[in-house]
Write a structure and sequence with these properties.
The protein has 100 residues and is of the alpha+beta class. It is built from 4 helices and 3 strands, in the order αβαααββ. A 3-stranded mixed β-sheet has the order 1-2-3.
Length: 100
């Protein structure tokens, strides 16, 4: 996570939703200044869906914007991980929980 995000400073980072203890452990691994808000209380841990739910939540809150780049990541303790830089389409249409 650190090596991927260091060269992309300033981009929003969508991370998995974990309970506080696990989240603290994850945050020791990289600079967390651009991490999206914690949505664990709202969604719980939704496995591979966490970064996408995070991104939708941030778009709805106005803290992420269409046409911008961000980092999405997913991981399992002692399991898989994935990380990518994505660009949101300028004309992106999105909805969370049936809101349009």
């Amino acid at each position: 996570m650190r090596s991927f995000t260091e060269s992309r400073s300033g981009l929003g980072i969508a991370v998995p939703f974990f309970p506080e203890m696990s989240r603290r452990a994850l945050f020791k691994c990289f600079d967390t200044s651009s991490v999206h808000g914690d949505h664990y209380q709202r969604f719980g841990h939704s496995f591979g869906s966490d970064p996408w739910l995070s991104l939708l939540g941030e778009l709805g809150a106005g803290t992420a914007h269409t046409g911008s780049d961000c980092i999405v990541s997913s991981l399992a303790m002692n399991g898989y991980f994935s990380i990518a830089q994505i660009t949101l389409a300028p004309d992106l249409h999105y909805a969370l929980e049936g809101e349009m």
